[in-house]
Amino acid sequence: MAVTWTRAWWRWTGGPTTRPVERVVRVDGRSRADEPDDERQAFGRWVRKRPRVDGGKRRGDGCGRRSLSPTWVLAVGGPQPAGRGGRVGGVGRDASRLAGLQRRLQGIAGGLAVYDEAPDNVSSSTYSSTPSLPGCRVAPGRRADAGLPLARVTSNRIDVEALAAMDGVGRFREVLPMLMDPVAFAEAFVSGDAAGGCRVPSRGMERHRATLRSCGVASDARSRPAFAMKAFTTPKKDGRTARLVLDARPLNDAMRRPPSMDLPRLRDFIAEVERHRFAMQCDGVSYFYQFPVDASISRYFGIGMKGCDMLLNVLCMGWSWAPCIAQRASNVLVRDLGLAWVDNFLVLGGTLDEAERNVAVFRKRAQAARVEVRAEGDDALWQVRSRFVCVGVEFDLAAETQRHRLDPSWAERWVDGSGMTAVLSGRATARQFAEVFGGAVWATDILAVPRCHFAALLSFAGRLGGRMVGAAAPVWDEVVDVPPSARRELGALRKIVRENPWVVGGVPEDTGSVLWTDASSRAWAALLEAEGRFVDGRQGVFAGPDADAHINLKEMLAFAEGVVRLCWAPGAQRCRIDNAAVVGAVAKGSSSSYAANRVLSRSLRVAERRRIVLCPGWVPSGEQQADPYTRGASLPRFPGAAFRFAVTCRTL
């Protein structure tokens, strides 16, 4: 018998935390007929749980959580106070039966991991004070321990002081105290939360205790950690090993937000790589684990475990400051030599000799800071090449091509994955849609496909994301109805990704003209300037629904009219707009507005057909040349058609 979702919560009976509490385990998709009589006698009785929409409690509801469909609830409880042992939702069983129930649930779910989680209506401090009565949750698709061994973890530790000495900019030195200075670490807490007190036990992690201890990643805690958090493992892309991650949300919520990572934008990363001809790539071995943490700080990185908690002695994956520290350290190693993407290092060179010299400098820096690196995939370490795959992008830097595309293996997994099939069928979980949509964003960035072409998909993702912020795990596993328009757009993107075309880098030749567009509350205007004079222009009045539109949408409409009616010459077309929202939307190829995306998609499709690359730029309203013609002024006289053709279409 398959269990689609199982969860247990605390239900408090009142009084001190040492008093007995009742657990309620909900098993969806299971009827009373599925449960043998002897099992019901052993673990309790099944109670009908009615659907609730008002968020209040009812008899038989368990702990009063919102439910969208009827389910069967198996109630298991500890010794009840006098006169309350027979109420619905508790059967008065001894609390020691919970261990047997957990084992039974693991068998029912086919080896799914059991791990702890406090309910939303119980504070972390109250939950942490009762470690002897843990809750349990069995979650499909989100396994706390996938049964895989931990990936090889290095025992090497970076010399952070030597790395800071190489930092000519000072960006790494700015965040180094978060690793080595307990005072600076405590100052990063907000509202005096440095005392901690949170304890969330981890289940299924005891099997990794010896591995973590042997490589120095963690050690047994001799006193209670300030934060003892839940640890879990996630499979790595090789599918044979797992990565340890700490659910550090309690710690992250108590600290202020980290500064900028200094991570380059993906498009800037690709453009910088394509300016060179050769590259050497490598990545850090267990990179986060190579950063040591001061002993007085490690007490904030506790792992709640059965028997004895552990303390992480290295940078914690899951801590909000960790990516910032790792990226800034990587930037020190590749400064003036190439690029870094967290733990991926790319050393570049315009010629083979330059690339080899840069590799030699990078090796000296890595050795001085004691950073352990390895080659990506089957490549030989320190090998310089012109075709390679890095951060999910395949580059071909040969002089005659200079192009890039998606990593073919990633594209195949995304296109033919089970999540994609579920989303295109229209019935997928919120988690599946989020995974597919994240891949869509990544693919459009790499393949230079404007996201405004997928307005319905973006709109649905925005609405769903608003519901999911801070949502509990069961909400993420609810089935959502994906609109047909969003599925059609996703299907079109899937076709592009399946083809995985090469994208040629470089900037086209400038057209030599400038497009000026502007809009007022009632009218729009667009002018084309070439060789110091206006050679063409259009103006109009907003009518119908456009007359009541937001000014940002009117500015986007004016821009679209200018592109469609005035721009014909292929190449880089400079555009001057006095609305920052429109400039940003055109630059990144999408907007947060569904209507603006539809308008922008029209103009960009026209530009693609005419082989025009739009280069927007902002100008103050006082310098906007089209502004007077949106306020009643008539357009100036333009030269004849022959002159306009000679100026604007000379590259045809």
| Helical content (DSSP H or I, runs of 4+) | 25-40%
Q: How much of the residues is beta strand, in percent? A: 15-25%
How many β-strands, per DSSP?
A: 27
Instruction: Work out the radius of gyration.
Output: 30 Å
Counting helices, strands and paired strands, the structural category is alpha+beta
What is the makeup of the main sheet?
6 strands, antiparallel
Order of strands in the sheet with most strands: 3-4-2-1-6-5
Low-confidence stretches: 1-146
Distance between the termini: 69 Å
Number of helices: 23
Overall geometric form: globular
* Average pLDDT over all residues: 77
Commentary on this structure:
This protein has about 650 residues and is of the alpha+beta class. Helices cover about 35% and strands about 20% of the residues. It has 23 helices and 27 strands. The strands form 6 sheets. It has a 6-stranded antiparallel β-sheet with strand order 3-4-2-1-6-5. Helix 15 packs across helix 16 and helix 16 crosses helix 17. The N terminus is likely disordered.
Question: What tags apply to this protein structure?
Answer:
alpha+beta, 6-stranded mixed β-sheet
Summary of the model, kept short:
The protein has 652 residues and is of the alpha+beta class.
